[in-house]
């Protein structure tokens, strides 16, 4: 029997369109019965913030500022280009709806339901001052070394 | 005999400099007799738009707007940074000319002539409202699953 | 005995945060006894410019302009987002200091000390008008073909 194939993604970017690309690849890979890991780092953390669980407790001034200005969850992410203060994004979302394409939140929920493993970069979490409690459920903390060991088992590795 | 090596690229970005990086890697890989696939997704579609084949027929208002404002073909792409309303790009293009480096259109034609396989992301095409007829010739439509199966055969996979 | 594992990175981006991601991965891989190559291309060259070795000799007007406006060394790089004319970056650097995380220059020196191989893209160097003498020591020039042959030996390849 052939060894199970595996896809390993780092989602570094906090852009709506790039997050969508990552989740479409992840979901498609699961439909092909591949194993899938997403390692959320830096701005990628914004995608898995739970908008209803923001906390300002035990944070420095800078951590509070970042927590308040950085995007809060999937639908709050900007486009990587032509965002035009949100007009471009609203347009894109409408165009997706016209094509009956699900939105980013649906892709995100789908990924977890389909069994994509979500990992969060330990150092990014610390530097940005977020806590695991402010993130969506079922996300595990991983160091860069853990990521590398997980990626070494993969057949496709991408940095998005 | 050793198995043929293969390079698999996703070009997600619509930046002049990133598209150039992708095409230089693709052309160099062909010169090493590697197989090469480029999967154009999202903004990457702008690179393979044929500027003379734009159509507004059967498009929604948003699709028309996007079609008119998004870059039309290789020489219309902006730089990923220091674009400065086109001044930075004009400067870079002049510097490339001073070094006798070919421009992006030449790299693009070279890639197709050298046998690089061009694939376009089905979902991106639908969401952005472009049609295959508006693209340069010899581009095939592929789903995300097709991409993954193609990438599984590759030795190097990059997301650009 | 198992074959040594290898990580191959292209650093195309000239952003502070992306350069940090690249160096954290590179340093972590070395700590796992993996071989590591970083191929600096385009804006990535800004990271390895030696701020004290800038030269204007034998340069065209455009090369001088680019040399003066592009970031000079690690601490001069902007953030990929929320840079806000440097305020965002200053904030991030303070937050890193609060967590006792080293800054980008320290990660860069650490990488060379740990034995990460630094390669510079020949064509990028020529187009941007930089010389090897303006870069930090122990960087070798490589063509795109050399990069591909190096990456073919790697287990993980990422474009950052």
TrEMBL record, chains A, B, C:
The lineage of its organism: Bacteria, Bacillati, Bacillota, Clostridia, Eubacteriales. It comes from Dehalobacter restrictus (strain DSM 9455 / PER-K23). This is Sulfide reductase. It comes from the Bacteria. Transmembrane segments: none annotated. It holds the Pfam family DrsE_2.
């Amino acid at each position: 029997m052939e060894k199970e194939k595996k896809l390993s993604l780092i989602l570094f970017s906090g852009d709506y369109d790039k997050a969508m690309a990552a989740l479409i690849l992840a979901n498609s890979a699961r439909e092909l019965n591949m194993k899938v890991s997403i390692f959320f780092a830096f701005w990628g953390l914004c995608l898995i913030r739970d908008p209803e669980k923001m906390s300002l407790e035990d944070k420095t001034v800078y951590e509070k500022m970042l927590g308040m200005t950085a995007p809060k969850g999937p639908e709050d992410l900007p486009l990587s280009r032509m965002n035009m203060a949100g007009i471009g994004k609203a347009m894109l979302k409408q165009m997706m709806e016209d094509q009956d394409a699900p939105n980013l939140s649906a892709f995100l929920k789908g990924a977890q339901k389909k069994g994509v493993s979500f990992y969060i970069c330990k150092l990014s979490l610390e530097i940005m001052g977020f806590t695991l409690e402010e993130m969506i459920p079922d996300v595990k903390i991983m160091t860069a070394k853990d990521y590398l060991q997980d990626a070494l088992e993969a057949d496709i590795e991408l940095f998005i």
